[in-house]
Write a structure and sequence with these properties.
Number of helices: 1
Structural class: mainly alpha
Low-confidence stretches: none
Oligomer: single chain
Order of helices and strands: H
Strand content: under 5%
Helix content: 25-40%
Number of strands: 0
Radius of gyration: 31 Å
Amino acid sequence: MEKAERRPVSLAGLRLIGAGAVLGLALAAPAGPVQAAPPRPDATPVAEQDVPQPDR
């Protein structure tokens, strides 16, 4: 039997393959609960009597 010819693999190529595998796993994993920001209170309307009137 003949020996298979082995080709050298660059480290950059291995890094790309690894990054693709990590990205694929991240996209395939089920999404967890979304960390939503707490709801902000609505701006309260200001009544006319609450607004200070400048001295005339």
